[in-house]
Every structure is written in C-alpha cells, then in structure tokens.
Design a protein that fits this description.
alpha+beta
C-alpha cells in the first residue's frame, strides 16, 4: 500500500491543523513552519491553507533524501 495514498485523496487545499495531523507534528509547529515558509501555503479569504500537491512533493523529496527546492 502506498503510504502517500491518504494525501493523494485530499482536496487541493487543506487547513494547517489537517496538515499537522498528516505530518505528525503539533498544530503550533505547523503554523510556525507555514509562517517561516517551510510549508507551501496559499491565502484565500483571509485564511491560510496548505497546497496539498506541493506538500506531497515536499514529503516525496524528503523520503527520497533530496532537499526540497
């Protein structure tokens, strides 16, 4: 089974707390990483979302041992 399957089935944008759960990090850490630019974000309607496809790429690159661009 593909470990990334749950991520592939998500909508294009996800809330930061959802991304935190997927990554196994705290909500506050996810917000901090998003603010620092370490997580791919988009602002929409006054809210901040994580771009699912870019998060998938980030995780895939980390799994392959390469640095994210």
């Amino acid at each position: 089974m593909d470990a990334m399957a749950p991520l592939k089935s998500l909508p294009p944008l996800i809330a930061i707390p959802t991304a935190a759960k997927l990554l196994g990090i705290s909500r506050s850490a996810a917000y901090r990483y998003a603010a620092m630019g370490d997580l791919p974000t988009r602002h929409l309607g006054g809210r901040v979302y994580i771009v699912t496809s870019l998060l998938y790429e980030l995780i895939s690159n980390a799994d392959n041992g390469s640095e994210a661009a």
